[in-house]
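Please review the protein record below. Tell me whether the encoded fold seems credible here:
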Amino acid sequence: QVQLVESGGGLVQAGGSLRLSCAASRIEFRLGAMGWYRQAPGKQRDLVATITSGGNTNYQDSVKGRFTISRDNAKNMTYLQMNSLKPEDTAVYYCTANLWIADTWYPYWGQGTQVTVSS
């Protein structure tokens, strides 16, 4: 069973930085795009950033220029460097990874890590 484990969340003041990490383990199939989503209380889960195995990235408009996604294919890990954090970035951040199984991409999710930005 694939496992995604996030770390690096916490409490930070506005303008500060955090770096989230996500480790994928028990990978028995081809690992495709990885990414980060976030969900604030009472809101839907939204895309933050994604990165393909080849390194192509995509960002939500509100985080462009502040967040950077990266990955280490050898370690099956992805990272989210978050700078210039704002109170509206407060949310639970979820790591996601797509695995190629039986000619189909299947998404897997981590348990989430809380990020709280104080004003």
The chain has no helices and eleven strands. The CA atoms of residues 29 and 79 lie 21 Å apart. The chain has a mean pLDDT of 96.
